[in-house]
Design brief:
- The complex is a heterodimer of chains A (about 200) and B (about 210).
- In chain A, about 40% of the residues lie in helices and about 25% in strands.
- With about 200 residues, chain A is an alpha+beta fold.
- With about 210 residues, chain B is mostly helical.
- Chain B has a two-stranded antiparallel ribbon with strand order 1-2.
- In chain B, strand 1 and strand 2 form a beta hairpin.
- The longest helix of chain B is centred in the last third of the chain and has 31 residues.
- Classes of the chains: A alpha+beta (about 200), B mainly alpha (about 210).
- Chains A and B meet through helix 1 of A and helix 4 of B.
Chain lengths: ~200, ~210
């Protein structure tokens, strides 16, 4: 093949790819609103399982990470209330995992203990890393503790490190470490915010 | 008129005599993986039919604009684009289905049925014929999936579409939910389809 043919084929391939990209961009824009609505419903459901006493919750505007960590970011945060009294906070944090970024929702109570963890988005390997969010993968079969369920009840200032106080998934140590790190980050920032609220109230 | 007959023949071929799963035997892994529930089987069948139809129509419409040496990457682009579209739409409007299907939706990209039909059929055939082929193949895939899933779910879980239908005294035969049960039911479907094909062939000869 000569140079001309390479250029021509390259251009043809680029044209097909560009059209496909445009089509995807349109679909993404059209489905975005519906997807956000579904995400909101999912968040509400998770909050209700984290805090059985929940009566209302509201989004914290401009939640800032007081304890920043490289690569990790806060997506959003909700203050959970029972009759106008704050009973906890739920923080969604994102960070790098084995492949692409993972998004995790973490609920923390006033006692600084984790009320629940829900992995909202993860794109790791099926059968290995994806076990992290599975409802049917148990690290303790007798108590049916799921991998993400083991965080519940732990304190926010525990080490929360895979292979230390958190059981790692066999064959998916990277995922286990990455998700644990995101959980720790979300929990730490959540408790810091609660402490700030308590200080302001006094 | 003759063309219409030809289209109908192409459509029907995918359902029994050239069924992608039972005769051509391609795209089997996804078929075995999603057939432990009728709901996921229906979802997978429809998703694959949509991607297959759109890919075949587009490839067929542009077949004169696709250089021979570039055809495989272009097919992949077309198939991947439609798979991503269905993935986005499902995540937005059918979250439960999207969660249940998980990785199998992205895996439609590498489903042999689509690649095979696009390469062997629609890259050489007009648009209408390709659409008929895609619908036939898609429906052929879907009915087998739903059939296998129905048997596996009823016997292995005592339910249909997640609604319990067996009497309480029925002890579900877990074997059918597990992969080996899938293979067994799948094999039974192959022999059933061969029998069906023979009968149809006999009828056609007689008529």
């Amino acid at each position: 093949m000569n140079v001309k043919a390479y250029v021509k084929f390259g251009a043809i391939l680029a044209a097909y790819a560009a059209v496909a990209c445009a089509l995807l961009a349109v679909t993404y824009t059209l489905t975005k609103a519906a997807k956000e609505k579904q995400d909101a419903i999912r968040t509400e459901k998770s909050l209700k399982t984290f805090f059985p006493d929940i009566e209302s919750f509201e989004k914290v505007k401009g939640f800032e990470a007081t304890l920043p960590q490289e690569g990790l970011s806060i997506v959003e945060a909700y203050v959970v209330k029972q009759k106008d009294i704050v009973i906890g906070i739920a923080v969604t944090a994102a960070g790098p995992s084995y492949s692409d970024r993972a998004k995790v929702l973490v609920g923390v109570g006033l006692d600084n203990r984790i009320q629940g963890v829900k992995i909202l988005e993860i794109k790791d390997t099926p059968g290995l890393g994806l076990k992290a969010k599975s409802n049917n993968f148990f690290i303790d079969k007798e108590r049916t503790t799921t991998w993400f369920g083991q965080f519940t009840g732990k304190a926010a200032d525990d080490p929360l490190e895979a292979k230390k106080d958190i059981a790692a998934i066999t064959g998916a140590t990277v995922t286990s470490r990455a998700i644990s790190r995101i959980v720790k980050y979300a929990a730490a920032n959540g408790t810091a915010y609660i402490a700030k609220l308590a200080e302001a109230a006094q | 008129m003759n063309r219409l007959k030809q289209l109908v023949r192409l459509f029907l071929a995918g359902i029994v005599s050239e069924n992608p799963l039972l005769i051509i035997m391609i795209g089997l892994c996804s078929a075995l993986a999603v057939t432990n529930g009728v709901d996921t089987a229906i979802g997978m069948g429809l998703a694959l039919t949509f991607v297959l139809l759109m890919s075949e129509v587009i490839v067929s419409a542009f077949r004169k604009l696709i250089p021979d040496s570039l055809r495989i990457p272009i097919f992949i682009i077309v198939i991947a684009a439609f798979t991503t579209i269905i993935d986005l739409v499902m995540a937005a409007y059918f979250p439960a289905l999207s969660d249940a299907m998980g990785v199998f939706i992205p895996l439609i990209v590498v489903n042999c049925i689509i690649m095979g039909r696009v390469e062997a059929f629609s890259s050489k055939q007009p648009v209408l014929e390709s659409a008929a082929d895609a619908l036939g193949m898609g429906l052929g895939y879907t009915w087998v999936l739903v059939g296998i899933a129905a048997i596996r779910e009823i016997l292995g879980n005592g339910s249909f579409l997640n609604i319990p239908i067996m009497p309480k005294s029925y002890e579900p035969i877990l074997f059918f939910i597990m992969p080996p049960g899938g293979f067994l039911v799948f094999a039974l479907f192959i022999s059933f389809n061969l029998w069906l094909k023979k009968i149809i062939a006999k009828r056609a000869k007689g008529a």
